[in-house]
Design brief:
With 69 residues, the chain is mostly beta strands. The protein has a domain of 39 residues. The chain has 1 helix and 5 strands; from the N terminus they run βββββα. The strands form 2 sheets. The protein has a 3-stranded antiparallel β-sheet, with no helix packed on it. The chain starts with 6 loop residues before the first strand and ends in a 6-residue tail after the last helix. The relative contact order is 0.20. The structure holds zinc ion. The site of zinc ion has 8 residues, from loops.
Length: 69
């Protein structure tokens, strides 16, 4: 077994179940909880922290153009 990619184990803020994050995740990335299907944003990795987001809001965030000024 190759362990080059670290797993970060944390808990879903919604259902409190253990959630293993891929160590290559970056803060700001969106994930979906495998247990409760909540949309979560990676707030930080050290310590691991997740925040629930509204899927509709996250979609808007992702679609926001980078240059709008
Ligand atoms: Zn969950």
């Amino acid at each position: 077994m190759i362990a080059s990619v670290p797993l970060i184990v944390t808990r879903c803020p919604v259902c409190k179940k253990k959630l293993a994050l891929n160590g290559t995740m970056l803060p700001g990335q969106m994930i979906v909880c495998v247990t409760c299907d909540s949309h979560l944003r990676v707030e930080s990795l050290d310590p691991p922290r997740l925040a629930q987001v509204d899927p509709a809001l996250s979609r808007t965030e992702d679609a926001r153009p980078e240059a709008y000024g």
